[in-house]
Design brief:
Elements lengths: L6 H11 L4 E2 L4 E3 L6 E4 L3 E8 L2 E8 L4 H11 L10 E5 L5 E6 L3 E3 L10 H20 L2 E2 L8 E4 L5 E3 L6 E2 L6 E4 L9 H4 L3 E2 L5 E5 L2 H16 L5 H4 L3 H9 L13 H10 L10 H17 L2
Parallel strand pairs: 1-6
Antiparallel strand pairs: 2-4, 3-4, 4-5, 5-7, 6-7, 8-10, 9-12, 10-11, 13-15, 14-15
Helix pairs in contact: 1-2, 3-5, 3-9, 5-8, 8-9
Length: about 300
């Protein structure tokens, strides 16, 4: 259970106060049988269900930070894009926190054999994720957790979806936001790793810009076209060595296994050490539009 007097009621009150959609319990059909579980995380059990004839993912939370979850849902309720998981609403329940998202019949990129994907599919995945990230950045949102686990590839179509807004932040008055260092080490931008202030709990804090997302996207593209985890083509998967590279702001090693020179360029532009010179998402997206067009006309 979530540690609080009545967190479910507090959460529901927050949802109603912020005019976020509340769904009546009889409108969602799902079984909390163990055989119906899609996934179990540290914070929730996820079940497959039905809502208005749509397949949905039903998140039943049991152990989470209420404030963080409120921030996540507030962001999810504001965004809608073909390559983002759709937020349907919060179940009207003051005993459990239950949130309804679209169900995607697919695999996280981490579990996809990228060697089985052809170049067209890989470029389309890059277009899908770049498009969703462009939408977020244009709406003053930083995802902050782009990695192989936050991208789902739909089985039937190979369409890519960006998921997991658990640590996303809104940029309200400037191009950056004061926040704690978050995200996996392999996909972390050097300026995030090198934040040099600390909060009262000892967490690194500092100003982060959307360019941190671009670095992570570059790492994903590098993996997609090479099969190598970021940095690991040169330094193996050794945290201490990779932390030293980030600390010293060493150049990201673009894998030689990426045969397409233009993709290599995209990775290099996205993982430029100097965030001021790093491409923004509009530039990355336009590069992939051009690559896709040229590939189509060359066949």
């Amino acid at each position: 259970m979530i540690n609080d007097s009545n967190p479910s009621k507090q959460f529901l009150d927050f949802i109603i106060k912020n005019n976020i959609k509340v769904i009546e319990k009889d409108k969602v059909i799902f079984s909390n049988d163990i055989n119906n579980v899609i996934k179990v995380t540290d914070f929730a059990q996820i079940y497959k269900g039905k809502y208005l004839e749509n397949d949905v993912s039903v998140y039943v939370y049991f152990n989470t930070d209420l404030k963080n979850l409120q921030e996540e849902v507030l962001i999810c309720s504001k965004v809608e894009h073909p390559n983002l998981t759709k937020f349907y609403g919060v179940l009207n329940d003051d005993k459990e926190i239950i949130i309804i998202f679209s169900y995607i019949n697919g695999e996280i990129l981490e579990n996809v054999n990228v060697g089985s994907l052809d170049e067209n599919q890989k470029i389309q995945i890059c277009l899908d994720i770049s498009s969703s990230l462009k939408y977020l950045h244009e709406n003053n949102l930083i995802h902050r957790n782009i990695n192989l686990g936050s991208i789902i590839i739909e089985n039937k179509t190979s369409k890519a979806f960006l998921t997991d807004f658990s640590i996303a932040k809104e940029v309200k008055d400037s191009v950056s936001v004061l926040t704690r260092a978050k995200g996996g080490l392999l996909f972390m931008a050097p300026e995030v790793f090198n934040l040099d202030e600390f909060d009262d709990d000892g967490n690194k804090i500092g100003y982060v810009t959307p360019k941190a997302d671009i670095w992570a996207l570059g790492c994903v593209i590098s993996y997609l076209f090479s099969g190598h985890l970021p940095w690991c083509n040169k330094y193996d998967n050794k945290d201490v060595v990779i932390m030293k590279c980030l600390s010293k702001k060493k150049q990201f090693p673009v894998p030689n296994e990426i045969l397409n020179k233009r993709i290599k360029q995209v990775v290099a532009f996205a993982t430029e050490i100097n965030e001021g010179e790093r491409y923004d998402i509009s530039q990355i997206y336009e590069l992939f539009i051009k690559i896709a067009e040229d590939l189509k006309f060359s066949k």
